Amino acid sequence: MNGQPISGAAVRTGRRRGRTALPALAMGALLLLVSACGGGSDRPAGAGKKAEDAGKVGTAASQAVVTVAPKDGAKAVATSGTLKVTADRGRLTEVAVKDDKGNAVEGRIAAGGASWEPLQHLASATKYRVHAVAEDAEGRESAKDTTFTTLVPKNTFIGHYTPENGSTVGVGMPVSINFTRGITDPEAVEKAIKVTAEPSVPIEGHWFGNDRLDFRPEKYWAAGTKVTVRLNLDGVEGRPGVYGKQAKTVSFTIGRSQVSTVDAKAHTMKVVRDGELIKTIPITAGAPSTTTYNGQMVISEKYKVTRMNGATVGFGGEYDIKDVPHAMRLSTSGTFMHGNYWASRGTFGSANVSHGCVGLRDVRGAYDSGTPAAWMFNNSIIGDVVVVKNSKDKQIAPDNGLNGWNMPWAEWIG
């Protein structure tokens, strides 16, 4: 009887061992499998650390810091010298500055991307939006968006320009701009005015005093040239506390070439159009005591009939003619080419009797289209050139009318 319990105990013990042996073998296989998938001795050193670092790069903030001056929301900001964008611990990759109408401000990112500055002044009384992006050494980006508003000027100036927008003018027509206030920063004003031509030709500006700026090429314009003038004066500080308020584009076309040469000694004028002599006209020039200027002169105004009073040009009461026909202005000081009905027919082509003007035979009332003066008037346009030679007078001053052609190119650009 004692043997049965011992035998039963042995069976139970064997069954337990049998049940626990299979899980042990399975665990061993599982350990081998885990060891194989984990890499064991084949796992690269530091692989786990790199994976961890990669996760940090993907979620870490950019170290680049963008700074915009003026500060966000600033008012009455100066139109020049204030706007600047910089990047610390990184480099700028994008800067966009626009006004409320979407007009972009041209600018340049410095080499290395540390800063950005505008290449032009800003307009006055205008709200601007700045969007800037920088990236750090790891390529992570940060951005900044701000707004500011420029000052409202108390004192302003504009430029009165010639020729008129859309006009067709002669080959001698310069771009001439007269400012309503004397300019003390001519460089800033001239930089804000761009004159271009098609076909392209070098065009340079020249200041006469502090309130007039003319532009021209070295030689007369080529016939058919298209000229565009961009006045970006809005916001330009032309003198302390005085700002421009113009933003305008003007264009005009150069017509056929016509250059007429007056020989005061021979009492004739030869009209050359597109290189061909088309007419020779008898004239009378200035009398010995009131000679006509020599030089290249540009027709700046045309009047079918006008009044000429000697008192307005320094001749006192020597003449006051209320109906001078077919008059074309050649100088600011009062030089005209005009019709003359009061001199005898024989005067033209033989004598100089005028007060400095170039006279052509005409009739009172300007009704006869067959007179030399009428022909010249009808065949001339603003900007045509009239050259006077062989007069016993000095050369006309370049700023006396639109007559900058009398200044050598080297002096003009100097």
Report the sheet with the most strands, covering strand number, pairing sense and barrel closure: 5 strands, mixed
Rg of Cα set = 42 Å
Average of per-residue pLDDT values: 89
CATH level 1 class label of the largest domain:
Mainly Beta
> In angstroms, what separates the terminal alpha carbons?
136 Å
Give the % helix: 10-25%
In one word, what is the shape? elongated
Detailed description of the structure:
This protein is of the alpha+beta class and 414 residues long. It folds into 3 domains: 65-150, Immunoglobulin-like; 155-254, Immunoglobulin-like (Sandwich), CATH 2.60.40; 258-413, Beta Barrel (L,D-transpeptidase catalytic domain-like). It is built from 5 helices and 28 strands. The strands form 7 sheets. Strands 22-21-20-28-23 form a 5-stranded mixed β-sheet, with no helix packed on it. A 4-stranded antiparallel β-sheet has the order 1-3-6-5, with no helix packed on it. The longest helix has 36 residues, at 3-38. It is elongated. The model is unreliable at 1-51 (pLDDT under 50).
